[in-house]
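Quarterly update from the structural biology core.
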Amino acid sequence: MIWASMKRKVAEVNIGKTANQMPEMVQEAFKFIPVDEWCNHCAHVKKLEEEYRSKDGYLDALFIVELCSESEESSDDDSQD
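Predicted structure, tokenized:
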């Protein structure tokens, strides 16, 4: 979101520039991202975080995957002796 805006602004001025000039171009690009754009992106992230928190109860259920049964495990132990 902000990263895409910053990359777009750098691309606009990155004509004939060297790699050494990249840090300065990035810093300048961040300066020109408007406050309202930052606010919109922050509000969107907060909304997503709230959605994740509200669904978090669904994700807390225990989920176990057994790779082998106990009988297979004990058989393997017996064969190694």
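The mean pLDDT is 82.
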